[in-house]
């Protein structure tokens, strides 16, 4: 038995109905010169950032019309506002080049009374320096009209443009230096000085006018030590930093050379002028290294990103030198018992101190 198969070809006809284009009322902004020129910037580009750029809203055109008609600026919002600014705003191309971005521009009917129709305009203009958004201004206004409100909408838009441009002109005059500084490569300036006024009464800041006294040694002697006396003097550093309006980092560094009364001690049987002189040299050596640290910081070329570590590295190096010099002094002077070598160190240290200018004399 032969089975017959029948294949049916179904034809689908797509009916296309061409819809008429929506009527749009195009408004051309009136060429009317703005009296005040822009002094601090000029517009180089206008961009429409609105999500819907096909129109700016819809209004009733005829006096008795109930139908709304879409409204737009002729050739599009960005081109028309750019044309208006170019032809009607006096600008100086030697000033800052600024982009104008349109974030809002819309007209909406908000009410009607009799033959009059009320429409509200909302505007938003953002100002850009390159890719950086500087500020955004919002504005608007209301029209009441019978019949075609196009002329009033034109006046409102032009008035908002004029007000916004001059508001930003004043704002940019007051804020330009800050924003321009942010685009500059940051720089660094380091100021260093000796801090000589400790708040702690147990600390003595080094001063040529204030030599050590035996009464300054108030600590308890270490019975495990063979030393006749110990001078606890420290050299350390602290700093603060801030960035100014010119994008310059200002670093204030303070170097401190202190003697700690509570940690410095002298045995009763060693409380004499010879011991005091030997211990004074230890404090003098600390002061010399503190001054060298200041001088090193003044001459060093610090980097913007790494200055804290650079400061710490310089401080550690001077601390190492200080420890080595203190040990050398004790070794050569035999902790003050070698008269000849003690005198040698007295002269050496005093000569160096006379050449120092970081302490108030």
What does this structure look like?
Helix 3 packs antiparallel against helix 4. A hairpin with a 4-residue loop joins strand 11 and strand 12. The chain has 5 helices and 13 strands. The chain has a 4-stranded mixed beta sheet with strand order 2-5-6-7, with helices on one face. It has 2 domains: 159 residues, Rossmann fold; 168 residues, no CATH class. It is rod-shaped and about 115 Å long. It is an alpha/beta fold. Helix content is 32%, strand content 30%.
Annotation keywords:
30% strand; Rossmann fold; 2 domains; single chain; 361 residues; four-stranded mixed beta sheet
How much helicity do the residues have? 25-40%
Low-pLDDT stretches: 1-21
Largest sheet: 4 strands, mixed
Spatial gap, N to C terminus: 130 Å
Question: What average pLDDT do the residues reach?
Answer: 89
String of helices and strands: EEEEHEEEHEEEEEEHHH
Using only CA atoms, what is the Rg? 41 Å
Give me the count of strands: 13
Q: Which range does the strand content fall in?
A: 25-35%
